[in-house]
Structure formats: C-alpha cells, structure tokens
Prior knowledge:
Distance between the termini: 24 Å
Oligomer: single chain
Number of helices: 5
Order of helices and strands: HEHEHEEEHEEEH
Amino acid sequence: xxxxxxxxxxxxxxxxxxxxxxxSNLEVARQIPVDLKMTIYxxxxxxxxxxxxxxxxxxxFLGGKIFPxxxxxxxxxxxxxLQTIRPDWLVLGVxxxxxxLGLTTPHREESMxxxxxNK
Length: 119
C-alpha cells in the first residue's frame, strides 16, 4: 500500500519535484515540511492550494485547459512546459492498474499528460 510518509524522506533541499494530481499525491503534498527548500511543478489545483503556505518552495503551475473532474490542467501548453522540466522526482497519480495495459486512466487527455510526465 502507498504510504506518503515513506516518500517525504527522499526529498532533499534543492530537489525538483514534478507532482501530478490525485488524492494520494495530495497527501504527499500535505506532508512536505514547511521549511523544505525545493522546486515543485504541478498541474493540480488542490496541490498548489496545499503548498501555498510553504514559503521556501518555488512552485510552478503547469497551466493549460482545466479538466474539472480531476482539478488538473491538460493540453498543449502543459505538454510544452513538461518538455523543459528535468525533475529529480516524479510523483504520478494512477487511477488503475491493468494486467496487460499497465497504468491506466479513463480520460485521454489526462493520460497523455501522465505519459509525458513519465518520460
């Protein structure tokens, strides 16, 4: 089972984190220490809202078309920005795992963002 508390010790000052939307990822964001200095890229409105009170974080929001059900951004502008990022860490949201297809999500545009995040 996924445990956000086991992820947090991996992050160090100066690291660059790319974090996707999702409830588990939101919990990771909630547990990031308020004094940690790092750069975080995200396409998730809820994650940005949680991290706004962290004065030492450099938060970059991946703007694009809003996908309301997941509260994330998708689209060409997100793809373009992701091509310029070289994160130390990726925290990727997963909707389900299929035995033949692997990690899946029911929405095409959202899955395309996840795919490029994982490259």
